[in-house]
Amino acid sequence: MNVRRSAAVLAAVAVIGAAAPAAADSSPSPSRAPLPSALYGDSDPQYDGVWRQSLALLAQHTVDVEPPKAAVDWLAGQQCADGSFAPYRADTAKACDAKTTVDTNQTAAAVQALAALGGHDDVTKKAVGWLKSVQNEDGGWGYTAGGASDTNSTSVVIGALAAAGEKPAEVEKDGKSPYDALLKLELPCEGDGAGAFAFQPDKKGKLVANADATAAGVLGALGAGLAAGPGKGTGADAACAKAESPEQAAANGAAYLTDALAEDGHLVSSLPGSEDQPDYGNTADAVVALAAQGATEQARASLAWLEKNAAGWATQSGPAAYAQLILAAHATGADPRAFGGKDLVKQLSATGPAAAGKTTEAKAQEEKKDESDSGPGVWWFVGVCLVAGIGIGFLISGRRKRRP
Length: 404
Description:
Layout: H1 7-16, H2 49-62, H3 69-77, H4 104-117, H5 121-133, H6 151-163, H7 178-184, H8 211-222, H9 246-262, H10 280-293, H11 296-309, H12 311-317, H13 319-332, H14 344-349, H15 360-367, H16 375-386, H17 391-399
Helix pairs in contact: 2-4, 2-13, 4-5, 4-6, 6-8, 8-9, 8-10, 9-10, 10-11, 10-13, 11-13, 12-13
């Protein structure tokens, strides 16, 4: 869930300044090869193709929309022989090699999506095997194999393990589980950022509170995934206490998020020069985390803020943004088809393959229409033209900023 620490990504960050999704140029490059028709979004998938596809499929699954088979097959087909996933492989006939930049986040997201949809046990088993093979000695995961453990990567892998039927607490390296790694990344109850999670320790080994890492950490500590539903946890009202268990760590993190959201209902960007700007994606992440913890009051209040304010961001950002909002609605029991006057489900489907999966009810309705009625096709085309893909802007703005 964090931008790959590779030279290519660092170069991309330098070029776009880790801009917010709305500021990213999502226009297809004239020199770029045509994108696969099965891919959601029309922006460059080099850094987030598998990630946004996985979120889109998960979001559709939560609202009982059957994704197009081509879209699911495309995701499964991105897997390397060792089980890992890269963000985007334009030529899957070519085997992955040492130059293929695979990572834990794309792999874990793909596992969560394919496990939810079912029918891809061979793919998810290989992916989980690879994730286990690159687990760090502290029990956690970094973005890339061998990278220092961080809260976001460890948490999304926990979600993948749980989705695949594993017991995360029993997945150990040198006697350390993923929960051991998370507990070491949570701030104590004294001082600034009490109860929050850090992304990683800074260069001096200090833990610095990070709101989006905290949202991820809460989900990870609960053993929940990206598509977590309403939880029955302890909420976020209890005072911060020493985190000697994942459950207490989740409660502490939820309390921190509640305080951070209380004044305005949303989180703000941590990017230099944009500190006063709302962070829509990370707010949606926080809503999911709070709902999973059982802190429904603040979760619903922040979802209401998103309903009023996030439409423009989602339209400019594309499929992963629509998916995040759908997942936030799902976590709180809200209706994503009536989200601030918008139907997020239709908007997400419009960014994907033309033969978008439909519910049984929708299929029945379409069968009644005159075959000469080109309305659905026309509106799908208009939707694709109007909706900009989320691309690297989302992955960087929603994940890169998590680093202190």
